[in-house]
């Protein structure tokens, strides 16, 4: 068995979110992107994840990681709507090649916040999900 990698899991999250009609950016919104010149969007901030021991034999083939979704909109309502759509998209087990995965587990979130550092100001709502998988 090979050690599981984070990128196929992140790709599965992106696929689920884009399948729900959401615009997704990895690691930050590209320069010049704002909710005024594009649709509201989701920014993914994944952690590297870790291979976990599946048995006393110390075979590290199980996988666990946390990904933060920051849902951004021009209004608080848009940010909440994107967050709702993202939660619905992540309410099923993700398709990761060669892996059997759990449904992403909602861990926590923060209140919708206003970002006055951009012009015009926008709103964002971060939430975190745990991803888990085992070999098929």
3D structure, described in words:
Strands 1, 2, 3, 4, 5, 6, 7 and 8 form an eight-stranded mixed beta sheet that branches. Helices cover 21% and strands 39% of the residues. With 136 residues, the chain is an alpha+beta fold. The chain has a single domain, classed as STM4215-like. It has two helices and eight strands.
Spell out the key features of this protein.
136 residues; alpha+beta; STM4215-like; 8-stranded mixed sheet; 39% strand
Q: How are the secondary structure elements laid out?
A:
Blueprint: H1 6-19, E1 23-26, E2 41-46, E3 50-53, E4 60-73, H2 76-89, E5 99-101, E6 105-109, E7 113-115, E8 122-135
Parallel strand pairs: 1-2
Antiparallel strand pairs: 2-4, 3-4, 4-8, 5-8, 6-8, 7-8
């Amino acid at each position: 068995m090979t050690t599981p990698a984070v990128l196929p899991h992140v790709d599965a999250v992106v696929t689920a979110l884009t399948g729900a009609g959401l615009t997704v950016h990895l690691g930050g919104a590209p320069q010049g992107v704002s909710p005024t010149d594009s649709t509201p969007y989701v920014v993914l901030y994944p952690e590297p994840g870790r291979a976990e021991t599946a048995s006393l034999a110390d075979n590290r083939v199980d996988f666990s990681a946390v990904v933060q979704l920051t849902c951004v909109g021009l209004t608080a309502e848009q940010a909440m709507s994107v967050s709702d759509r993202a939660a619905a998209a992540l309410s099923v087990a993700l398709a990761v090649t060669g892996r059997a995965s759990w449904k992403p587990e909602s861990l926590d979130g923060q209140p919708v916040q206003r970002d006055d550092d951009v012009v015009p100001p926008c709103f964002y709502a971060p939430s975190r999900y745990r991803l888990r998988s085992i070999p098929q």
